[in-house]
Amino acid sequence: MPQYSGSMLRGAFGHALKKISCMTDMPSCESCPLQQTCHYTAIFEPSPKLGDRYASLPAPFIIEAPFLPCECSIKVGQTIKFGMILFGHSMQLFQSIVLAWQRAAFQGLGRQRARARLILVEQENEHGFSTIFSEHSALINPLLAPKKLEVSQELTQISLVFLTPTRVKHNGVYCNGQSITAETLLNALRRKVDLYNTHYLHLDIASPPRPSHIQLKGELKVTPWSRYSSRQKQGIQLDGLLGKVTLEGDLQPWANLLALGEYTHIGKNTSFGLGQFQLERQGL
User: Fold this and answer.
1) What secondary structure, in 3-state letters, does 59-100 show?
2) d(C-alpha 88, C-alpha 208), whole Å
3) Which of these, 173, 266, 169, 269, lies nearest to 227 by C-alpha position?
4) What is the pLDDT of residues 123-178, one digit of tens each?
């Protein structure tokens, strides 16, 4: 297993989803007559609508896998566990998503194509965790109502713990631990949440004021990380920030965005799990 398996898992999922979805076997999805009804394009390669203010759409899912200190080996009989955030219409296509993960495991994971079995799929909801799929049953249970957001009513201080490398740009340059500010971080959060909200969530969220008065304390450190792109046939360097920072000031106008950001992540390359953070707050 690589140090961070989100990219590997996303690639395996995409290949498997295309195998179970494609009915024409055309070399390109763009010229396929079934593109508008295909589950693969809807989930993995969504296209913007005419007149959309965004040139591209984020996929309606995010992989969440642990970032490990180093590469490790999974022995026969051991299990791996990871998460998947679903947005918008991907929740209605959940059965195809489960079947794709089954196929991805059977086809094999990693460079060695180590075969596996999909044992269990659980959904976090209002009542805790419920079983959606088990390998001992052929049924895929319907999703329940998702967990409600936890939004603080009075917010003047909150900490963000970054769990996977986070790539935030300011003036076209990726930030390091010394150059990132509260304003840069929150503006990146605003853009990311707006992207998912515009296309999938459709929530009425008031735009917060400029966060120039908010202070950032703590330190983030650049962590080297790279992934291998099977499409480009080469390694891609994707260094990002890890660590913990604390924001102080009038954060109440940002409370909704911070709560949503735990699901949308922040910065670049979030579809395979980069930019994941966890909030540490009191009173919730």
Assistant:
1) CCEEEECCECCCCCCCCCCCCCCCEEEECHHHHCCHHHHHHH
2) 24
3) 269
4) 998 888 999 999 999 899 999 888 888 887 789 999 999 999 999 999 999 999 88
Give dist(CA 194, CA 197) in Å, integer. Answer: 5
Length of the chain in residues, anyone? 284
Number of H-type helices and E-type strands within the chain:
5, 12
pLDDT of residue 284: 41
Distance in angstroms (rounded) separating the CA atoms of residues 95 and 268: 28
Q: Is 242 helix (H, G, I), strand (E, B) or coil?
A: strand
User: Measured between alpha carbons, how far is 55 from 177 in angstroms, rounded to an integer?
Assistant: 30
Name the band, by pLDDT with cuts 50, 70 and 90, for residue 54.
low
Mean pLDDT of all residues in 109-130: 92
> What are the angstrom distances between the C-alpha of 65 and each of 6, 90, 176?
5, 19, 23
pLDDT at 244: 96
> Which residue type, as a one-letter code, is found at position 201?
L
Domains of the chain, with CATH numbers?
Answer: 6-134 (no CATH), 157-280 (3.30.70.1900)
DSSP state of 209: P
Phi, psi of 199 (to 5 degrees): -95, -30
Alpha helix ranges (H) inside the chain: 6-21, 39-43, 94-107, 182-196, 255-264
- pTM for this entry: 0.90
**Quick one: DSSP state of residue 3?**
S
- Taking each helix axis from N to C terminus, what angle separates 6-21 and 94-107, rounded to the nearest 10 degrees? 110
- Residue matched to tokens 């959940």: 94
Distance of alpha carbon 224 from alpha carbon 210, whole angstroms: 31
The per-residue pLDDT for 241 is 96
pLDDT of residue 55: 67
Report how far residue 176's alpha carbon sits from residue 168's, in angstroms, rounded to the nearest whole number. Answer: 9
